[in-house]
Amino acid sequence: xxxxxxxxxxxxxxxxxxxxxxxxxxxxxxxxxxxxxxxxxxxxxxxxxxxxxxxxxxxxxxxxxxxxxxxxxxxxxxxxxxxxxxxxxxxxxxxxxxxxxxxxxxxxxxxxxxxxxxxxxxxxxxxxxxxxxxxxxxxxxxxxxxxxxxxxxxxxxxxxxxxxxxxxxxxxxxxxxxxxxxxxxxxxxxxxxxxxxxxxxxxxxxxxxxxxxxxxxxxxxxxxxxxxxxxxxxxxxxxxxxxxxxxxxxxxxxxxxxxxxxxxxxxxxxxxxxxxxxxxxxxxxxxxxxxxxxxxxxxxxxxxxxxxxxxxxxxxxxxxxxxxxxxxxxxxxxxxxxxxxxxxxxxxxxxxxxxxxxxxxxxxxxxxxxxxxxxxxxxxxxxxxxxxxxxxxxxxxxxxxxxxxxxxxxxxxxxxxxxxxxxxxxxxxxxxxxxxxxxxxxxxxxxxxxxxxxxxxxxxxxxxxxxxxxxxxxxxxxxxxxxxxxxxxxxxxxxxxxxxxxxxxxxxxxxxxxxxxxxxxxxxxxxxxxxxxxxxxxxxxxxxxxxxxxxxxxxxxxxxxxxxxxxxxxxxxxxxxxxxxxxxxxxxxxxxxxxxxxxxxxxxxxxxxxxxxxxxxxxxxxxxxxxxxxxxxxxxxxxxxxxxxxxxxxxxxxxxxxxxxxxxxxxxxxxxxxxxxxxxxxxxxxxxxxxxxxxxxxxxxxxxxxxxxxxxxxxxxxxxxxxxxxxxxxxxxxxxxxxxxxxxxxxxxxxxxxxxxxxxxxxxxxxxxxxxxxxxxxxxxxxxxxxxx
Length: 789
Hints:
It is found in: Cytoplasmic vesicle membrane; Endomembrane system; Golgi apparatus. By secondary structure, this protein is an alpha+beta fold.
């Protein structure tokens, strides 16, 4: 191929290449010819060669050697060469290239050229790749062109001014006066550029925003003219007059009316007119309606207008286009907290979107459905959500189960319904629930004493049918161990009668212990349940003893330790077995939630009136009281301000003494109340901190987060930084979501080691997503409670 082939022939040769290697060979030969011709002083085909080089650049091959040729062609007096030179500059140069500084003077000269097309080339190039230095140098020229008489140039200059404002915020004041005068132009392109420029100015500066609020009547008048104007072939798109300008004006009105009642009142009538007169059968009309809805919801609009906006979003949910349905649900999600009743009217349509084939539409419908659950519709909504849970994709099961648990805890019409709902979820998607589900359900069952018989029968049946769902098996084992006597002797009228014998129950627990599907934690539940049945049945105690003894040599250390301790109860401490294995007392609700079955107590300051007894302050006595095995009644501490006699802990021939002997001589230690301080409180999110000193240099910090707003918070994370000499280890948090109204909390444990005893400080970063918007904040912690800093 000769070096002088036209651009069309080069494209044809490249496209006809059969392999990538052949294509590279064609391009390399042509680039070599172009490079050779660039070196010639008198080259009449410069624009032709640069055009070919730009095509090579578009294919992804290196073309940087053409940068200086672009600079030379921009300085050419011929329009044909300037056009290709400016095009090359926009493609091959950017503000990081030193060669871009060489064209500043050429652009300045061309901005003063009498030819409007040469001025247009310079404006487009500056708007495309102008650096901050170029913008500062050429901003006065752009301001002069904004006042030109040529509409074609003013349109280009307005868009160039937008780029300058984005690059150098301080230059926005220079264009304020000219931008306002452009709103009086008749040319739609000029008005469009002016609206974009004003929008940029208002977003960058609050003082400029206040100044442009006076232009709301002008913008309303322009918008009314577009809405009521007849057919115009130059601006009509699918029956809508200049929808691009309408969308830009609506966005600007949204910024001007936000948090301002006067500006909002001035545009209410216009927004109602646009919402009712715009055709929603075409995509163009839907775009205008969507911007109208966003504007109505963002300004201080009338209640009737907001209902109209929600109804428009409801119509979007019926659209066949999935993109329109998605943005409708995204918008409804943002306003469900403020316009709950209006959104509730479209509950049926939203629930139907759960059956959509698109994964993102289905996820958004799930989030919105969970936000719509209330006390009045809990039964119907839960029926739909449980049906969705049985068929939803695996990646949505955890979110669905968590949402159902939160809704059931908040709006459950009865305790039995609450338990049935959680058991249904555990049966359907037990492997996808969070760790705190098991202790929370156990706490719920413990507090509903009238349903113990019903619950243990239902869980026993569930265990017979399926032992693959580990959380369900753990709760079932716990209930059988606690209420096994009710399962064997109690008659539950609310369930079908089932013949249950001691052998049947032990067979089920042995199956769980021996199953390969059982996790070590589940086996621990089953072994403890088996041990507890030794005090609830009479004929199979020897079988239980043999089951327990088998696991005394188990490879799992936790299970082996339990079995050894239980064997000790059978052999050496059989006289206290009944007291130790008594039924658990009612578990008080823990506001911080549970983590992996372990309760984390929240420190609270309790004021005691004079004359009222305090709770026992001895750890061992609390333990004995919990197990119900203390033969000696616990003496309450006297009132504040009086001397408290020591409480005897271990005495000969007492259950307490035997228990201390069993546990290896546990010495009583008084409980030190842990102080809790609030380190962060903003926008409904509260983070508290409590410390517990583990050693001379070791410290455990507990961070607890709660959410008092009306909407759930997702993706909640805490990050901590400490001085370099302090070692930090962050344990896994209890969760990553904060339900609304503080129904559950997230707990994060941080272990610090300060060997050099430096002054301890911590910087905390809080990140989360609320109502679709990401939030990130930082707080400095300079003092820790209880350390005496």
